[in-house]
Design the sequence.
């Protein structure tokens, strides 16, 4: 799909970056795929990227983890 943009969130393995909006991410949070290290989803660090620059998909999150991320983003916008 040429020209398709995605809304993405920064993910870091650095616990130093933990804040009120950071969400833990572990291999148990995936239905498909895995990550090398326990990480944090930085839900307050959103950005867009065109599909053409994305190299690969790491995995698919469980619906419960996706819901947690979306709820946290809503909290940010509702402050």
Sequence:
């Amino acid at each position: 799909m040429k020209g398709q943009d995605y809304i993405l969130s920064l993910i870091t393995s650095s616990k130093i970056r933990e804040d009120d909006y950071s969400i833990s991410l572990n291999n148990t949070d995936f239905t498909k795929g895995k990550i090398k290290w326990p990480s944090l989803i930085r839900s307050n660090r959103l950005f867009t990227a065109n599909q053409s620059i994305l190299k690969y998909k790491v995995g698919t999150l469980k619906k419960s983890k996706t819901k947690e991320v979306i709820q946290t983003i809503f909290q940010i916008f509702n402050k």
